[in-house]
Amino acid sequence: MVTGGGFLTALSPFTPHSPQAAAIESLFIAALAICGAVFVLVAALIVVVAVRFRARAGVDPVQVEGNSRLEVAWTIAPVLVLAALLVLTTRAMDASDPPVDRAPDVTIIGHQWWWEARYPSGAVTANEIHIPTGKALVFRLESADVTHDFWVPELGRKMDATPGHPTTIWLEADDAGTYVGTCAEYCGVQHAWMRIVVVADPPEKFAAWERHQLEPAARPSAAASDGATLFRTMACIGCHRIGGAGGPSGADGPRFAPDLTHLAERATLGAGILANTPKNLASWLKDPQSVKTGCHMPNTQLTEAQTASLVAYFEALR
Ligand code: CUA
């Protein structure tokens, strides 16, 4: 779990916060211990044999051929070690990755270079995924362009998001908190800035969040109304949606860019590259390419006044 600042760098499979992640961690530790013991044994035997049977002046080496006991022992021992690893592995697979027997609770769509999250209720968000604690959830993974890989190590296993080939994983959080993940498959120039934030809340708090996502954006104040007009009349609305203001819609329709309906409630911009502050949002809007080179948001040549209006509008989208 993540506390305090710098949270986007804390990414560890050694602090599991779900039964699924705990099973994977235990398997890793057990396999490491078994393989470590084998390594120590083999290395020690090599040293003993090299020292004890080294060439000595005047002593003719004795060649020993065939020793049934030894041969049986070094055949059986690896079989037992591998059998133990097989049992541990299938147990971990059963705990972390059982067959999926129901419709997904969340559908994640990987895009260059951000994550879209859709809930069966119709709620849609980007990059910051909310879930209820204490419930094993089915995540369906899709891709809109190339192969990405969804990985939140503290909560579950890693899985590719491949175009045209949906996959599923189980994800769960024992405790409320913020968990960080990342794209784990090279997917283009901004692969490194495809961070995932999973916010796990107690079920009532999650339900309130989900209901709120379905509401349209806050009505723009007088100060933000210029920004609202710019959003509708400039290029923004071609790719981004704001509930109540417009944009590409439909539950399964194409979404080219993050839904901004409740943008002000998110902690980061650009899938984690910037903290969501008015100053950062202004530099992002003015020149997205200088912030996140190669991203699919063009520079729309905003004036200072237009940038300020859009920032006032977006930072009030709650
Ligand atoms: Cu998406 Cu790497």
Describe the structure in brief.
The protein is α+β, with helices and mostly antiparallel strands and 318 residues long. It has a domain at 222-315: Sandwich (Immunoglobulin-like), CATH 2.60.40.420. Helices cover 35% and strands 18% of the residues.
Verbal overview:
This protein has helices spanning 19-52, 68-96, 203-214, 225-233, 236-239, 278-286, 288-291, 304-314, and strands spanning 106-111, 114-118, 124-126, 128-132, 137-143, 148-151, 159-161, 167-171, 177-183, 195-201, 268-269, 274-275. Mean pLDDT is 90; it is low at 1-5. The strands form 3 sheets. It has a 5-stranded mixed β-sheet with strand order 3-2-1-5-8, with no helix packed on it. It is elongated, with a radius of gyration of 27 Å. With 318 residues, it is α+β, with helices and mostly antiparallel strands. β1 (106-111) and β2 form a beta hairpin. It is built from 8 helices and 12 strands. Bound molecules: dinuclear copper ion. Dinuclear copper ion is lined by residues 110, 113, 148, 183, 185-187, 191, 194.
